[in-house]
Amino acid sequence: MEVPKERFPVNAEDYKVYEEVGEGVSASVYRALCVPLNKIVAIKVLDLEKCNNDLDGIRREVQTMSLINHPNLLRAYCSFTTGHNLWVVMPYMAGGSCLHIMKTSFPEGFEEPVIATLLREVLKALVYLHAHGHIHRDVKAGNILVDFNGSIKLADFGVSACMFDTGDRQRVRNTFVGTPCWMAPEVMQQLHGYDFKADIWSFGITALELAHGHAPFSKYPPMKVLLMTLQNAPPGLDYERDKKFSKSFKEMVAACLVKDPKKRPSSEKLLKHPFFKQARTPDYLQRTILDGLPPLGDRFRMLKAKEADLLLQNSELNGNKDHLSQQEYIRGISAWNFNLEDLKNQAALIQDYDENSNANDQNSSSNSKQENGFNDVGLQLEKPLSPEIIPNHSDDASHLEDEIDEVPNLEDSFASFPMKPLQALKGCFDIDEDSAVDEKLLDTEENGIENQDLKKSLQQPIIIGPKKHSSGSLLPDNVFSSKKLIGDFERESTQPGFRVERSYSGPLQSRQKNNTANSFNTKEDASEEAVVQRKGRFKVTSADLSLKAPVNNSNLSGITSPPASSIATSLLPSLQSILQHNALQREELYKLIKFVEQVSGNCMEYGEAGPNESSQTPLSSPRERELQSQVIQLQQRNGILAEQLQRQKMKNAQLEMKLSDLMKKENIQE
Ligand SMILES: Nc1ncnc2c1ncn2[C@@H]1O[C@H](COP(=O)(O)OP(=O)(O)OP(=O)(O)O)[C@@H](O)[C@H]1O
């Protein structure tokens, strides 16, 4: 007889919410009691208002979580909205994530039998997911949850994709999601799309993470991680440094971390690898990694306090919110989603990175030195390094991280990582910040402008750089605030917000529509034409490439031979750059007009002080004359800028036409 499934209420009043036990980019997770069933559960609370741009992701996650049915996958009991939050009710995993456990008691990573036990369970989950057409896309220690009895569940389907999807969702496979350190090269590259083999790569990286306590390249800013992953040989376990690990472990990792996805084993095949023979039962995990651990909530609080301390130190040192955001990256949080085309084009422009290859190869896998004991699993030997050439260097990622200073930098700003990580990215992208509008101009407006300075700025051409900055805070809003803590004692006060509106166990489509509409209507959106893509907390725009890759119309018209796709690809950044340039010029123009108005206003006021005099009487004071000449100069500059803008618009239109022609050609060819 089939045991009837427990029916979890879709009503917030039926849950007693206790302490916070986890936190991600988009959500906080609480321990809670389902009162009618008298069962402890975990509730993931997502603020839908903050997820305007990622409702599709949420819908996907909830849908996947509700449909899956495998002991190694974290499924949702139910989900519903309450106020502007979405609650996802799921089994409570009292041990927390492997990342949390490592941070608390195994900073150097786990022993091999523990790793084998953990990974075998994860692999079983992947076999199931892949067989059902899903790519998880975010396999990492932070998403491997351990229950009180040592059983394992893979969590977080926030970025998972369904291979069988069509239309919009199919497109997901051509987007760039996940967490850079764990991300397969083909996901970054997107040349031919990617499939479930991307999870095998992340699985290999997770194996290294569990072995060392951190993922390879975890100290590097995302851009550098991307370049290293794309350009260097894969990371791996080192024969020297990782002596304590078995040959079969090294081989298993090497089998996963092959750049060519076709040469990676499927999850099913990998499960048969001899490495997993040493996997034990859950109670082994319970004894070895859970025993003596404080309750999850306490651990979470301690870790959070530690992180807050670190963040505070960083921000005190630099007074810069960017570091806080970078800290999240270091913590292994997902959602560093960038516009891939921008990234690729930017990466292509960073020539000097080639020089880094050698240094970075030190981090490359010892794959090249390994025998492949795992039949049929081809190893791609990339840039093999002979020990004679670099005798004293380990291949190990952690070693490389220890020697971070030895790695040549992409830009000076990278050198100071982790102190200046986002600035480094800003060199390549515009990561917009609300408040940081053109400071020079603001100063000018607010403080009045010295004549000399103004003259200078008027005489020199205004170089409109690639940076523009405006948007939301990068500060994780719950780092220093207690607003997310919902304990029993707070329940009374928070209860009104717990009103049930409707169940969201099913698709979130209608909700998404509304929110999307809202997001389109925001003032910010309307004013930011230059934004190419807004993902997670960042809006990524293409940087102004014009300085590095000037647009040459005559050249464009001469293009006949290269394939249409490559022309289109090479045109895109220029087009984006021009668009951005336009937007910036418009902004500049607007500011200048405002300034002129202000100055003219001042003049008027001044004139009005002596009625009927201003138009007839010659300007007598030097200040008056100065202002008058400034106004004239500004008006002239205005005119020039308007002209430039017009020209750029025309160029833009031409390029757009060319681009659409090329696209058409490309489509015809296909
Ligand atoms: N069912 C659960 N039981 C116990 N802890 C959990 C549970 N689900 C999640 N957590 C904890 O909460 C953290 C954040 O959850 P989750 O990963 O789902 O959020 P997220 O916003 O999707 O995060 P990210 O995008 O960074 O992976 C996890 O890393 C884990 O430590």
UniProtKB/TrEMBL annotation:
Residues 507-521 have a biased composition (Polar residues). ATP binds at residue 44. Keywords: ATP-binding, Nucleotide-binding. InterPro entries: Kinase-like_dom_sf, Prot_kinase_dom, Protein_kinase_ATP_BS, STRAD_A/B-like. Residues 15-276 form the Protein kinase domain. One of its GO terms (molecular function) is ATP binding. It comes from the Eukaryota. The keyword Metal-binding does not apply. Residues 507-528, 606-628 are annotated as: Disordered. Pfam families: Pkinase. The keyword Ribonucleoprotein does not apply. Belongs to the protein kinase superfamily. STE Ser/Thr protein kinase family. STE20 subfamily. This is Protein kinase domain-containing protein. The lineage of its organism: Eukaryota, Viridiplantae, Streptophyta, Embryophyta, Tracheophyta.
